[in-house]
Design brief:
By secondary structure, the protein is of the alpha/beta class. It has one domain: NAD(P)-binding Rossmann-like Domain (Rossmann fold), CATH 3.40.50.720. Helix content is 40%, strand content 16%. The chain has 9 helices and 7 strands. Strands 3-2-1-4-5-6-7 form a 7-stranded parallel sheet, sandwiched between helices. Helix 2 packs parallel to helix 3 and helix 3 packs parallel to helix 5. 48% of the residues are buried. The chain binds nicotinamide-adenine-dinucleotide.
C-alpha cells in the first residue's frame, strides 16, 4: 500500500539510497535534512533542533524513517548530544504529536561491538549490548526510547542495526578492514531493507533487527530476524554496489 514516508537525513549516503527505493516502489516520499535533497519532490530543509520545521514536515505522514544523525563517533557535547539525542527527542515527539503510526530508526551494529571483537559470532539482536563508545551509546538510547514509544504510545517501531555502508571518506579504511566486508551493507540492499521495514505487517510492534548485505567470510550480524520477520534477503556482497 502506498504510504507517505518522511525520511530524515535524506541527503546522506543511506538517505539517498532509501529515498530512491521508496520512490521506485511508489511511495509518497518527503525529505528532511539540513542540506537540500535534490532527488525529492518535497524537502524540508531544516535542523533536527527546529521543532516547528519538524512539525511542518510531519503533517500527513504515515511512516517516519529517521536517519539524520552524526553517523559515527564525534565530540559528545557539540555533535552527538544535539544531533543524536536532542534531535531524536524532537523528531520522536513531533512524530507522536502528528499521529505517525510507524517509526523506522537507524541504529548501528556498534551497539554490540565488544562481542563482535571477542569473536563470539554471529551477534543476535537479543544478546546483551556492549557499545563501542559514545556514538553507539546514543543508538542504545534510540533503541530504548523506541521500545517505550511502542509500548506507551502504541506506535510500531523498528530499530535497524546497520552494518557498514561506507561514506566516501571511509572507503579506503573500509577496503583495508577485511572483517568489515562481512558487515557491508550496499546502498541497494540498504534501500530494499528500509523499504521492507516501511512495508512490514501491522503486527510488527517493536523490532530490533540487523541489516547487512551477504557476508564475504563469516556471518557477524545474524540476519535470521530480517529474513523471518521482514522477508528481507540481501542481494549484494562486497564490493558489489560500492
Ligand atoms: N553508513 C553506515 O555505515 C551506518 C552504519 C550504522 C548506522 N548508521 C546510521 O545511519 C544513519 C545515516 O547514516 P549515513 O551514513 O547516511 O550518514 P550521512 O552523514 O551520509 O547522512 C546523515 C544525514 O543527516 C543529516 N543531518 C545530520 N544532522 C542533522 C541535523 N541536526 N539536522 C538535519 N539533518 C541532519 C546530514 O546533513 C546528512 O545528510 C545515521 O543515523 C547513522 O548513525 C550508518
Amino acid at each position: 500500500m502506498r504510504q507517505t514516508v518522511l525520511v530524515t537525513g535524506s541527503s546522506g549516503k543511506l538517505g539517498r539510497a532509501v529515498v530512491s527505493e521508496l520512490v521506485r516502489r511508489g511511495h509518497d516520499v518527503r525529505g528532511f535534512d539540513r542540506v537540500a535533497s535534490p532527488a525529492l519532490v518535497t524537502t524540508q530543509v531544516g535542523d533536527l533542533g527546529d521543532r516547528a520545521a519538524l512539525d511542518r514536515a510531519m503533517v500527513g505522514v504515515d511512516c517516519l524513517v529517521h536517519l539524520a544523525a552524526t553517523p559515527d563517533d564525534a565530540d559528545f557535547l557539540t555533535e552527538l548530544l544535539p544531533n543524536n539525542l536532542v534531535g531524536l527527542y524532537q523528531v520522536l515527539e513531533a512524530a507522536r504529536a502528528a499521529g505517525v503510526r510507524r517509526l523506522v530508526l537507524a541504529s548501528s551494529g556498534q551497539v554490540n561491538w565488544w562481542q563482535q571483537m571477542a569473536g563470539d559470532l554471529p551477534v543476535l539482536e537479543h544478546q546483551p549490548v556492549s557499545p563501542k563508545s559514545w556514538y553507539a551509546a546514543t543508538k542504545m538510547f534510540l533503541e530504548a526510547i523506541g521500545r517505550s514509544f511502542s509500548e506507551v504510545h502504541g506506535m510500531s517501531v523498528l530499530a535497524v542495526r546497520i552494518g557498514w555502508c561506507p561514506r566516501p571518506e571511509q572507503e579506503a579504511e573500509f577496503r583495508d578492514t577485511p572483517s568489515a566486508h562481512d558487515v557491508y551493507l550496499s546502498p541497494g540492499d540498504a534501500g530494499r531493507f528500509f523499504a521492507h521495514c516501511v512495508e512490514a505487517p501491522e503486527t510488527v510492534r517493536f523490532l530490533i533487527v540487523n541489516a547487512t548485505s551477504r557476508p564475504v567470510r563469516e556471518t557477524r550480524l545474524d540476519l535470521t530476524v530480517a529474513r523471518q520477520v521482514l522477508g528481507f534477503e540481501p542481494r549484494d556482497r562486497w564490493p558489489e554496489g560500492m
